[in-house]
Amino acid sequence: MFExxxxxxxxxxxxxxxMSCPRLEELVHCRNCPVFIRAGHGLLxxxxxxxxxxxxxxxLSQGKPSHxxxxxxxxxxxxxxxxxxxxxxxxxxxxxxxxxxxxxxxTGKLLLGVSVAQGQIYPCISVHGLLGVLPEAxxxxxxxRIFKRFLAAGKKEAETVIFPVDEVQxxxxxxxxxxxxxxxxxxxxxAAYIKGILALRDKRxxxxxxxLLFSSLDKIIR
Length: 222
Fold this sequence. Notes:
- By secondary structure, the chain is of the alpha+beta class.
- The chain is built from seven helices and ten strands.
- It has helices at residues 9-12, 24-27, 34-45, 52-61, 66-70, 127-131, 210-221, and strands spanning 71-79, 82-87, 91-95, 111-117, 120-125, 149-153, 161-165, 167-175, 194-199, 204-208.
């Protein structure tokens, strides 16, 4: 490709022009041409416009916007009449109904037994019982369990437990700044495990406190 006075021959006879440059057959594309490469280096080596460095320094000193750090997501599900959200970093899976096998001398109100999910055996916990929430009315009747699901959750893969829920809505994203303060409550209330209230269009969702939840689950298992 030939050099021209304004060094923009690629726009005229090159790849962005009429492609009449005799060197295109050899070079295939203008990006392989010394003229194009020199022009690119010239753009990088040129002096920045007046005020550019000061403007860039000011932008960098501001840091990231708070809303960029605050975005979170939860898996929204229902326990009885209560809608709650589990932060998705702790979610390990969503499963259909499955068999719960009791553990001799261990099975009770909170530890329901063990169950198999994805070829692994996991402890099965009653989060209904932990939060003091009654299961959906009629939940023992097969015909009324069409929304029955199991969630698998754990801070680490090796600490995963599964638990039945009455309905799963799905993942919801939100800004942490939009969470409302949970109501003051006694320790045995479901709200004791809630760190904030997320207002959705048709419901209010209690976002679970992961640290408190998994600390309690660990005590049940052990």
